[in-house]
Amino acid sequence: MSQREGSLEDPQADSSVSFLPHLEAKIRQTHNLARLLTKYAEQLLDEYVQQQGDPFGLPDFSPPRLPLAGLSGPAPSHAGLPLSERLCLDAAALGALPALLDVVRRRQAELNPHAPRLLRSLEDAARQARALGAAVETVLAALGAAARGPGPEPTAATALSTANSAAGVFSAKVLGLRVCGLYGEWVSRTEGDLSQLVPGGVA
Fold first, then answer.
1. pTM score, two decimals?
2. Ranges 8-12, 83-87, 100-104, 174-178: which has the least confidence
3. Which residues, in sequence order, are CB contacts of 149 under 8 Å at separation 6+?
4. Dist CA 46 CA 156 (whole Å)
5. How far apart are CA 79 and CA 103, in angstroms?
6. In 19-152, where does DSSP find H-type helix?
7. Rg of the chain in Å (alpha carbons)
8. In whole angstroms, what is the distance from residue 70 CA to residue 93 CA?
C-alpha cells in the first residue's frame, strides 16, 4: 500500500505524510462545496415543505416513510467503514440523486406550476449533486481508490418516475419530500467524510 493509499484510510496515521499541493487544493475545494451544498439542501427542504400545503407544514406532521427503490439514506454502519468505501458510497448516491431530483421537479411542475423558485431550486440541486459527485470521484481517483462504477441512477429514477405516475397527489408529495431529504442526508454525509481528508483539519 502506498503512502497516499494509507493516508486515505487514516489521514492522521502519519503526520509526516502530506498531500500533493494540487490534491490538497482539490480536497479543500470539494469539502467547501459539500459544506455549501449542505446549507442549500436545508433551504431546499424548507422550501419544498412550504409549497406542499397542509399537513406538510404542521409541527406534528410525520410523513410516511415510503420506500425508494435503488437509493436509501446512509446506513448506521456507514461511519464504521474505511474512508475510501464511505467516499465511494457518497459518490454513488450523489450520482443517483440528479435524476431523482429531476423527476421530483417534473412532478412539482404539475402540482405547483406557480412555484418557480422551488422548481429552480430543484434544478439547481440536481446540477449541484452532479458536480459534487464528480468532484468526489476526482478525489478518489487521485488517491488511488476507484469509485464503484455506475451508481443506481437508472433503477432509482425509473422506480420513482413509475411510482410518481401511479401515486396520488399526497403520495407524490411525500415521495418528493423523501428525495429532498435524501439529498440533504448524502450531501451532509459527504461533507463529514471529506472533512477527515482536509489537511490540518476542517477548513
1. 0.82
2. 8-12
3. none
4. 23
5. 30
6. 21-52, 83-111, 116-142
7. 18
8. 9
